[in-house]
Write a structure and sequence with these properties.
Elements lengths: L3 E5 L3 H13 L3 E5 L2 H11 L3 E5 L7 H11 L4 E6 L4 H9 L4 E4 L4 H24 L8
Parallel strand pairs: 1-2, 1-3, 3-4, 4-5
Helix pairs in contact: 2-3
Length: about 140
């Protein structure tokens, strides 16, 4: 089963390029051009991973990160940032972002961030599977 990814960026070119990369990597990709649209999609699809640009008009990526974590804490959120936004990216880690990648986004950096998100998802699944074992059997 393909992992669902929600990609949020106000720049159409970035959405298009990253969508192709993510689809090629085996993800089911949904896109949004704003945080408001992203929240609609997020609530409908409950994607395991969200990639969100920090700087967007209106509601920014940091607020989207807060809302996603409030609504579904175990969603992995990877922040996309420009070089001038590294301070914001560091603060996104405090809000429990999984990782951040800088623009222009290299394939290698994207793959590393996605692998980190996947590992966190697998660890939670192992923990859930392990919690079904009676304590005396452990």
């Amino acid at each position: 089963m393909k992992e669902t990814v929600l990609l949020v960026d106000d720049e159409e070119g970035i959405r298009n390029v990253l969508s192709i990369s993510l689809a090629d990597a085996g993800y089911e990709v949904h896109t949004a051009e704003s945080a408001v649209k992203a929240l609609e999609i997020f609530r409908k699809l409950s994607p395991a991973i969200v990639l969100a640009d920090i700087k967007m008009p209106g509601v920014d990526g940091m607020e989207l990160l807060r809302k996603v974590k409030e609504e579904r804490h175990d969603t992995e959120v990877i922040m996309i940032t420009g070089y001038g936004d590294l301070d914001l990216a560091a603060r996104s880690k405090e809000l429990e972002a999984t990782d951040f990648v800088t623009k222009p986004i290299s394939q290698e950096a994207l793959e590393i961030a996605l692998e980190r998100a996947q590992e966190r998802i697998r660890a939670r699944q192992r923990d859930k599977a392990g919690s079904g074992i009676p304590s005396f059997a452990q």
